[in-house]
Amino acid sequence: MAVFSGIVLQVMVPMLLIVGLGAGFHRFFRLDLNTLSKLNMYVLLPAVAFINVYDSELNGKVLAAILGFLLLQNGGLMVLSRIMAKLFKLERSMAAVFQNTVVLNNSGNFGIPVSQLVFHQHPLGATIQIIVTIFQNFLTNTYGVYQFVSGNGKSGKWAAEIWKNPVLHALLFGVVCRWLHVPIPSFLWTPLQRVADAFLAIALFTLGAQIAYARFNALPPLVYASVFGRLVLSPLLAASLIFLLGIDGVTAQALLIASSYPCSRNTALYALEYDCHPDYAAQAVLVSTLLSAITVTGVVYAARLLFPIAG
Q1: pLDDT per position as a tens digit, 125-135
Q2: I need a labelling partner for 46 at 20 to 30 A (CA). Which of 139, 177, 247, 262 fits?
């Protein structure tokens, strides 16, 4: 019960308050969603991406141990979501958004607080969540962007579109600076950190503006398929792979829990930026986030039962 109340009070309620504020502001003042999208895409997201990579303590042994799992799990989700899109007979742009809602998760602003809550006595669990978050950042800005670009009929130019993405540049620059141990002077680091700190609030505010006029009393069935894929199918696949690979203890718990987080907020942001069914993407993000308070709590308990920590 403590885990459930912790997720609700420390993660869900603050997020939903900001989303509600964004929805209310858009209804009253008719905000320019294109400007909000550009602010997120070209200023805030790059700052967050760079800091996530540069400021993380990446343990080489842990990274090597879980990289195979992440590749298998996300590869499996890509295949499964593609099969589901084919079965639903979705047109290309809708299939692209659907696949992103299943594959990409909110491992950063949702996952990191949850992992800190669950693994407060086991720092390795929080470290693994950082690695998963960085992996998801790269996945979002390569696979995720490719999906949106191809969904817009620009598949022939997907490499150029991905390379134009400022977030990918920030990630690569962060890797280089981290690898070469390049010190960032305080007069650059301080404003960079201030910009990154603003990301969560403005991104959630933007999500609220996106769903301001959405009707949640008659959600399209595809939203439920997205939620099922992200909150149920993903952890089931993860559990199967963990058993198959013989992973146990804190590492197994952290990887299983990390697979259960709701649809990535960035899916809604990119859908808005590329004008690729932004209403559906925002609905999937919000509904999965609401329901995840229950499902993530269930996965936490399951992880503790299936993969007990010795001692």
Answers
A1: 877 887 888 88
A2: 262
